[in-house]
Specification:
Length: 61
Amino acid sequence: MCLRGGGAINDMVTDNEDPQLIAMHERLLNIWTYTEICFIAMFVISLCLWVYISKIKQTKT
């Protein structure tokens, strides 16, 4: 389930008004954003490393 939109989930939570449910939902969103940031960071780092290594290989040959 993708939480990026979050509109329907937010409506569901606000209709319920259960504080535990809202807290759990916010925790889930926080975990999701952290993992997303980590994945993006790893992707960017690996991309930079790949470009850097390919440039080194070009200069050697």
